[in-house]
Amino acid sequence: MDFNYDDNQRMLFDMVDRFLTDKHDLAKRAKLLTDPAAEAALWREMAELGLMGAAFPEEVGGFSTSPADPYVVMERFGRHLVTQPFLYTAVIGGRLLIEGLSGADREEEIGMVIAGERQLALAAGSAHMLRSAEDTAFAAVPDGNGWKISGRMPAVLNGDRADKLIVAARTAGASGELAGVTLFLVAADAAGISRRNFRMIDAQGAAEVVLDGVAVGAESVLGSVDGGAVLVETALDHGIAATCGEAIGSMEYLIEATAEYTRTREQYGAPLAKFQVLQHRMADMYIQTQTAKSMALVAALSLDGDPAERMRMVSAAKAQVGRSAKYVGYQAVQLHGGMGVSEELDIGHHYIRLNFINQLFGDGAFHLRRFGALAQAA
Amino acid sequence: MDLSIDDKVQALREEMRDFFAKNLPPEFARKTLIGEKLTKDEHKQWHAILREKGWHVPLWPKEHGGPGWGPMERLIWEEESGMAGAPRLNHVSQDLLGPVLIEFGTPEQKAELLPRILSSEDWWCQGFSEPQAGSDLANLQMRAVRDGDDYIVTGTKLWTSYAHVSNKIFCLVRTSTDGPKQAGISFLLIDMEQPGVTVSPIYSLGGMLSVNEVQITDVRVPVTNLVGREGGAWDITKFLLGNERLMGAWIGVNMSLARQVRERLGRVGADGRKRSENSVLAQRVAEVETDLLALRYTTYRVLADELSGKAPGPEVSVIKVRGGEIMQALSELLMELAEIEGMVHPLSMPHDGVPVVPDELEHMAQQFFDKRKLTIYGGSSEIQRNIIARRLLNV
Ligand SMILES: Cc1cc2nc3c(=O)[nH]c(=O)nc-3n(C[C@H](O)[C@H](O)[C@H](O)COP(=O)(O)OP(=O)(O)OC[C@H]3O[C@@H](n4cnc5c(N)ncnc54)[C@H](O)[C@@H]3O)c2cc1C
Questions:
Q1: Burial (Cβ within 10 Å: 0-12, 13-18, ≥19) of residue B319
Q2: Are A184 and A141 in contact (CB under 8 A)?
Q3: Using an 8 Å Cβ cutoff, are A52 and A43 in contact?
Q4: Distance, in angstroms, between A373 CA and closest chain B CA?
Q5: Contacts of B240 (CB under 8 A, 6+ apart)
Q6: Least packed by Cβ within 10 Å: which of A228, B83, B99, B220?
Q7: Which fold has domain B7-89?
């Protein structure tokens, strides 16, 4: 067993960290949120750096040698509070392209992502936090050689920037069934698609997406007809593992920042760090982060194993990381006092993102149920 | 021992319900319940409606224009107005400063200032905290130096709620650096509409503007604006914070949030099933509901003691800590029950045509993150626990 990053991952880690230290901080992030051109430029630079390749193995044009590589990228994103959609485009979208396409199509689509010329968003599910495709809000009916898709999702994450949408639509069976969902790769500006953009509370972009009888050809199907939900399950597990990495990066940062703050801020004639109750609080933050980190790494390392085992570990990790992230975020704000709830410090922004992560891809309740069901079946 | 509520109080409760049903504009209630801010004009309208009924300053005695309610009536008011979604009026002026002036003010101060609060002409904010004086309030540095019949005041107040909509501020200022820190602090009333007073906004989580930095530079304040004696602010402060902490139970607002949570739990979720069938969620909701009941009866107990002549003491810390924690838990549940629709940023939502998410969900996340302050301000949860340990447990 070895829980350390290998040489490749070390290089990736250093590369991302150097880039973000140089290009990203709270002020720059605020500017990105109001300047789409600057956001697009940053994305291109990240692609030129080769970052997207971390989500793709060599045989499809990337340089990833371990399914845990996106974890490494996202862990740095978490530390630096980056809101760029590597998760939706490269990790989740990328995984669906890897598993859903083949041959020249696959090469071309993945090539676009690696080059930074393609943004993707997964439109699956209904009003939940992108946790599965079985209850998708979209339906597709056969139309000549192709399909016509209709439906509406109130918030598709990265739907605002996506050039192509991966739409999960019911093509057979009933809502809630794993079989009967088909994935379609659709140009986001296709006739019949309307989008309204906004931001989620954690500042990430999203869009309401409405499809009104959008006609697509048979070649736009990812994977097999009626077999899309399982692909989504896999892709979301990759997304969860990467997001757990993001949470760990954020939590480790919060612990350092809080320790530093309490060492320098004085009240009652002493640094806050001298109050034992606060020392113990920080020790608890550390305990939470370390146990969460173990599970986050286990999830990332289980991604290419047996699917049932993968799901069990990913759900265990997601529940643990969510719980720990909420605790660490809450206490980091608490120990910063008024400064913690000000938008001028990054602490509160981390806290918001960690709460978002707790909900994203299914909250603790959802993953404990999934974990329990899998454990019972085993 | 007896759990029943006095007939007179019960009748008043009915009267309040009836009053809100008939007089509270639905738009104000809607905004308040979903966490949208009312405009100053809307506040004034609501104030006028309450004034007509004589309920605009619920904490005040009759002789000063209030309803003269005892502790039980006030709590009933707190519950009923919270449940009805009645906007909280200019609370710093009425609930914090008003009682201070009534208790400690000079006859001239009462005569001049109370009517201006009653008429909603003056909006006060509370200038206690400073960059170096948060939990350690006695460490405050804002200087007031006596010069003839004036003080000359210089310093910075931080986290001042509502300073951006207020015309007056009451400040704790340092009038002496001799002796214990607490003994050199005075309570001073300052007009904000004059040169030398600058207000800069501070945005908090979720993009809300509610706090500010207030800078005061060489501002002359007449000595007649002193409340109590010079160096006598500490007792006034304890009196004021006691009132603030008792209100920290947020009983009515918490009850209203709990009702919303229960109602949402009964609806069908994104997975097509009733959310109440999700045992984890159902249990969490029941847990907070019982926490809230416990808080409610603890508040009743403190007030019942007050009725029998015992002034509320450090035990209000119990109420302050739990009130904040419970409101955080309830607003978290509301946000989570709304699933992805409860996680949007309200300031970014398009408002052309059909709303992207239902109106009442748009502010869910912002409300949750805004509630984060509850365990920090007005004496943090750590400070409340210090008080409990020291003053109630003698450890
Ligand atoms: C939204 C908001 C509105 C506010 N409105 C007003 C207002 O209108 N007027 C006003 O005067 N002030 C206001 N405040 C200020 C508020 O009262 C202070 O933030 C609060 O007293 C904490 O002070 P601080 O922020 O400096 O934190 P600090 O005092 O620096 O505390 C930081 C952390 O250390 C902990 N800590 C400090 N001392 C101890 C100790 N001895 N033992 C254990 N732990 C300790 C605290 O609990 C906290 O967790 C507001 C604050 C907020 C966030």
A1: buried
A2: no
A3: no
A4: 14
A5: B96, B97, B99, B100
A6: B220
A7: Butyryl-Coa Dehydrogenase, subunit A; domain 1 (1.10.540)
Distance in Å from the first CA to the final CA of chain A: 24
Give the position, in ligand 1's atom list, of the atom nearest the Cα of A268. 41
> Is residue A195 classed exposed, middle or buried when 0-12, 13-18 and 19+ CB atoms within 10 A define those classes?
middle
- Tokens 């309040």 — which residue? B16
- Tell which atom from ligand 1 comes closest to the C-alpha of B131: 26
- From the list B230, B244, B315, B362, the catalytic residue is B244
Closest CA to A258 of A275, A270, A272: A272
Cα separation of A121 and A161, whole Å?
A: 8
Contacts of B340 in chain A (CB under 8 A): 127-130, 154-155
Give nearest CA residue, ligand 1 atom 38.
B135
Q: Touching check for B389 and chain A: CB below 8 Å?
A: no
Residues of A in Cβ contact (< 8 Å) with B132: 266
CATH 2.40.110.10 residue spans of chain B = 124-231
Domain B248-392 matching CATH 1.20.140.10: the answer reads yes
Query: Cβ contact (<8 Å) for B381 and A342?
Result: no
- Using an 8 Å CB-CB cutoff, list chain A residues near B376: 333-334, 337-338, 340-341
Closest-CA residue of A relative to B367 is: A201
The ipTM is 0.96
- B382 with A201: Cβ contact below 8 A: no
Verify whether residue B244 is a known catalytic residue. Answer: yes
**Unique residue bearing structure tokens 């319900």:** B17
User: Which residues are CB-contacts of A314 (< 8 A; sequence separation ≥ 6)?
Assistant: A237, A240, A241, A299, A302, A303, A367
Integer Cα distance of B148 and A40 in angstroms: 63
How far apart (Å, rounded) are the C-alpha atoms in residues B36 and B29? 10
B356 with A268: Cβ contact below 8 A: no
CB–CB contact B340 A127 (8 Å): yes
Closest CA to B166 of B117, B219, B226, B233: B117
* CATH, range B124-231: 2.40.110.10
Q: Give the start-end residues of each E strand in chain A.
A: 120-123, 138-143, 146-157, 164-170, 181-187, 193-199, 205-216, 221-222, 266-267, 270-271
Q: Is B207 at the interface with chain A, CB within 8 A?
A: yes
**Interface contact flag, A155 B376, Cβ < 8 Å:** no
pLDDT tens track, chain A, 378 positions: 889 999 999 999 999 999 999 999 999 999 999 999 999 999 999 999 999 999 999 999 999 999 999 999 999 999 999 999 999 999 999 999 999 999 999 999 999 999 999 999 999 988 899 999 999 999 999 999 999 999 999 999 999 999 999 999 999 999 999 999 999 999 999 999 999 999 999 999 999 999 999 999 999 999 999 999 999 999 999 999 999 999 999 999 999 999 999 999 999 999 999 999 999 999 999 999 999 999 999 999 999 999 999 999 999 999 999 999 999 999 999 999 999 999 999 999 999 999 999 999 999 989 999 999 999 987
Q: What is the pTM of this model?
A: 0.97
Report which of A7, A1, A161, A162 is spatially closest to residue A72, judged by C-alpha positions. Answer: A7
Are the CB atoms for B318 and B291 separated by under 8 Å?
no
Domains of chain A: 7-114 (1.10.540.10), 120-227 (2.40.110.10), 230-377 (1.20.140.10)
Query: From the list A135, A203, A208, which residue is nearest B356 (CB)?
Result: A208
Give span(s): CATH 1.20.140.10, chain B: 248-392
Shortest Cα–Cα distance, B142 to chain A (Å): 16
The total of other beta-carbon atoms located within 10 Å of residue A217's CB is 12
Q: Which regions of chain B carry the CATH code 1.10.540.10?
A: 7-89
DSSP-assigned beta bridge partners for residue B216: B155, B197
Ramachandran region of residue B85, left (φ > 0), alpha (ψ -120 to 50) or beta? left
